[in-house]
Design brief:
The chain is an alpha+beta fold. It has 12 helices and 11 strands. It has 2 domains: about 170 residues, Jelly Rolls, CATH 2.60.120.10; about 100 residues, Orthogonal Bundle (Arc Repressor Mutant, subunit A), CATH 1.10.10.
Length: about 290
């Protein structure tokens, strides 16, 4: 299945949506969420820090915070915004952020204001009682599990989110169209379907009739990552989602994500998240 075929099967689970006002209390560091966030700033200003970027949240602009991106927040005075948090589902457990490069900021039009108003109307009583991102990550667990909206509201919400998200697409990052001479896209689908199983370069390369060096080179050409880094990152993203949305122990989550050693799971988790799995879980449980 190519990128367009995957997009046709795109679906969303909206967990929160509302218009709110934030103040100086909106001051949080090093947040990593398995949920995507969209903001439309209607008044005031604040800042977010993504990787090495300091981004000013300005009135009249839309902002996209992708899932699993480390982010910090800072408001020096006040800010008013429409916001929504949601998960994005694609077939084969792929992420849309692996397929496309996205802009972070887009100039809003009156059409976008109307879309957010309609989204709020379709999802009443889904506001957050707190601006604390760690708290709404934990609350997203219940919304993730107990989605109550009917078919009409879900269709409306999915359509609106699709329109808003499409505004941010910049360029294709990874094209999954499988060609007879390039089996890497096929191997990526296999990886996502088997993250909980044993995966290593020698077996993957043999499966697709390549030498280990050739497989690694072709894989890096497509993904800009070597296969082991790619696999570990996908496993850690899966672990983050499970830590936020299940009560499984950290050890069990490690096994479900393909880490046979709890020590290695903790090492890889800390490499990408900067916290151990236990410390990350504790930060959620202490809210």
């Amino acid at each position: 299945m190519d990128n367009i075929g995957l997009l046709k099967k795109l679906s969303f689970n909206v967990s929160f949506v509302e218009h709110c006002r934030l103040g100086e209390e909106w001051d949080y560091s090093n947040i990593i969420s398995p949920f995507t966030r969209l903001y439309l700033i209607t008044n005031g200003e604040a800042y977010i820090y993504l990787k090495d970027q300091k981004i000013k949240l300005r009135k009249g602009y839309l902002y996209l915070i992708p899932s699993f991106q480390q982010c910090s927040y800072k408001c020096n005075d006040f800010m008013e915004q429409y916001y929504t948090t949601f998960t994005i589902r694609l077939p084969n457990k792929l992420s849309i952020y692996q397929l496309y490069n996205f802009n972070i900021e887009v100039k809003a039009s009156s059409f976008h204001y109307e879309l957010f108003k309609k989204l709020c109307s379709a999802n009443p009583n889904m506001s957050l009682p707190s601006g604390n991102p760690l708290e709404y990550q934990k609350m997203n667990l219940n919304a993730f599990k107990n989605k109550q909206n009917g078919s009409k509201e879900n269709l409306i919400s999915s359509g609106i989110i699709s329109l808003l998200l499409s505004e941010f697409i910049n360029s294709t990052k990874m094209e999954l169209k499988t060609e007879s001479m390039n089996k890497i896209p096929e191997s990526i689908l296999f990886i996502h379907q088997n993250l909980s199983n044993r995966l290593n370069i020698s077996e993957l390369s043999a499966k697709y009739s390549m030498s280990s060096d050739h497989y690694t080179r072709k894989f890096k050409e497509l993904t800009k990552q070597n296969p082991i880094d790619y696999i570990n990152r996908q496993r850690i993203e899966k672990a983050l989602l499970l830590l936020n949305t299940t009560s499984y122990s950290c050890k069990e989550i490690g096994y479900q994500c393909g880490f046979n050693s709890n020590t290695y799971f903790s090492k890889m988790f800390k490499k990408y998240v900067k916290f151990s799995p236990n410390d990350y879980r504790a930060s959620l449980d202490n809210l």
